[in-house]
Amino acid sequence: MPSDNLPPDMTWARLPGPVPTDHAWVDCAQWRALAIRWHAEGGQLVALWGSDERPAGLGFVVHAVVIAAGTWRWMSLAAGCDDPHFPALSDLFPAAARQERALFDLLGISCAGRDTRPWLRHGAWGPADFPLRRDFAGAPPGAGSAHPYPFVPVRGSGVHEIAVGPIHAGTIEPGHFRFSVVGDEILRLEERLGYTHKGVAKRLEGMPLAEGGRLVGRVCADSTAAYAGAYAMAVEAVSACVVPPRALWLRALLWERERIANHLGDLGALCQDGGLAFGHTQFGLLKERWLQTHGRLFGHRYLMDVIVPGGVACDLDPTAIALLDGECATLLQTTRRLQHIIDDHAGLQERFLGAGRLDEAQARAMGAVGLVARASGIASDLRVFSPSPPYDTLKTRISVRPGGDVAARVAVRFDEIYESLRLIHAILASLPDGPVCLPCDRPQGGHGLGAVEGWRGVILVAVTCTSSPESHHVHIHDPSWQNWPLLERAVLGELVPDFPLINKSFNLAYSGHDL
If DSSP codes are grouped into helix, strand and coil, which group holds residue 83? Predict the structure, then answer.
């Protein structure tokens, strides 16, 4: 790391693994000084979390990963034992605000100036219970009590509130949306998430690292390949495991197929919300056929348990490669025809254009990531700007649209389908020979980071083994943490009946808040 203008007495270590990350232990002054510098450089906060490292004599530790000047930086701060605290980052990086609240809810680590309202506490734990502390064995029945959540009120003549959720129609996870409106115009939207408390993070503490991938891959079913891939990368980093080249190329194939499946489903849902039932039916059919191919060739429609530490669990023979290549050619032709129909449909375009606009300045200031960022004019894609093999060879073409509205987010989805089809063709044509999985030896300790550009944005998994390889902490970060507050901004001034369409154009995950 460059030495100019850095706080003194810092040692940076380059972590092993495909994500080129520099890690350092810092004190409070260094933590704050680095954050100020990275913010001035236009850096982006990827994730903020904590871990209980008291068995290693480190007390509670706060971690932050930032991408600044094209480089990954991971800083760790020992926050103390009796009154753990750290300097806030949310005044510099707004995306940190809810993560700071979650830090206190889960570990009791506080920071000055944070929003003190509970974010993940819904009455399951008592005030002195912090579920990610090592000595937490579960709150006794009745230990917690639910209190009305203090939503920010909007005052004025004719203002009223509409409460939606947390239970919704269909099979989506719970989330509460509190609208303040005048007539049908939205003045404010405030979300409340984190209702289900699956206990994933706690279970991973006692689970062998080699087995944790099956659980991590089930955090969010529509992104299982990306989650499992990021986890495998982190475990491989702390195990000094070298993944066979063929496995790396097959992982990229799976990530691109997962991206296409979700974009097809979203395009169908957006047609439905926009009033074009034909589009919903056609895209649903395309997605179903795509998933059926997953089931036949990879053993699971949603690609679960295919990416594992050390490589992948299955291989492709020449017949399967030919089938996949032919399927891509057919999908390309069909999708182009459907895009022409959508682009020429005046009623649908009237719904899409201008709806849910999020301009570039807002998106950049609030830390937008992934598809949402690219549809607001921000060039952000790990496959392009921090490519791990084989993306360093494939030369991904990024799709950036300036509109920032539903139409732009639809256009990015089409662009990315076409680019993923191109990448899949290139992967199948250049797939190297060799094994697809090697043993992932016993973890050697230290820090490991894995990151994958999932279809929503960057999915990050961090593994820390500080006291012994058997004592580890796994942190999982979903890009929806960054983009949920942007949805609140995008609907301001819109009509309530347009919210389902705008919400679907973001299509954010609840799962990241429910670990």
Answer: coil
The neighbouring-strand residues paired with 458 are 453
Q: What is the largest CA-CA distance in the chain?
A: 70
* Phi, psi at 439, each rounded to 5°: -60, 135
Backbone angles phi, psi at 356, to 5 degrees: 60, 45
89 with 68: CB under 8 angstroms?
Answer: no
Rounded distance, CA 48 to CA 276, Å?
41
Instruction: Give Cβ neighbours of residue 182 (< 8 Å, ≥ 6 apart).
Output: 156, 158, 159, 160
pLDDT tens by residue, 214-253:
999 999 999 999 999 999 999 999 998 999 999 999 999 9
- What crossing angle do the helices spanning 224-239 and 209-216 adopt, rounded to 10°? 160
pLDDT tens digits, residue range 406-455? Answer: 999 999 999 999 999 999 999 999 999 999 999 887 777 789 999 999 99
CA separation for the pair 132, 103 (Å, rounded): 9
Q: Kindly report the backbone phi and psi dihedral angles of residue 44, in degrees, each rounded to the nearest multiple of 5, phi listed first.
A: -125, 130
Quick one: which of 325, 458, 306 has its CA closest to 388? Answer: 458
Distance CA 481, CA 98 (A): 8
The span from the CA of 275 to the CA of 406, in Å, is 14
Which amino acid belongs to residue 104?
F
b or e along 350-372 (b: 16 or more beta carbons within 10 Å of the residue's beta carbon)?
A: ebbeebbbbeeeebbebbbbbbb
Q: Which of 286, 277, 290 is nearest to 335 (CA)?
A: 286
Nearest to 216 by CA among 511, 476, 499: 476
Residue type, 38: W
d(CA 105, CA 431): 46
d(CA 491, CA 262): 23
Instruction: Count CB neighbours of 141 within 10 A.
Output: 6
**What does pTM read for this prediction?**
0.95
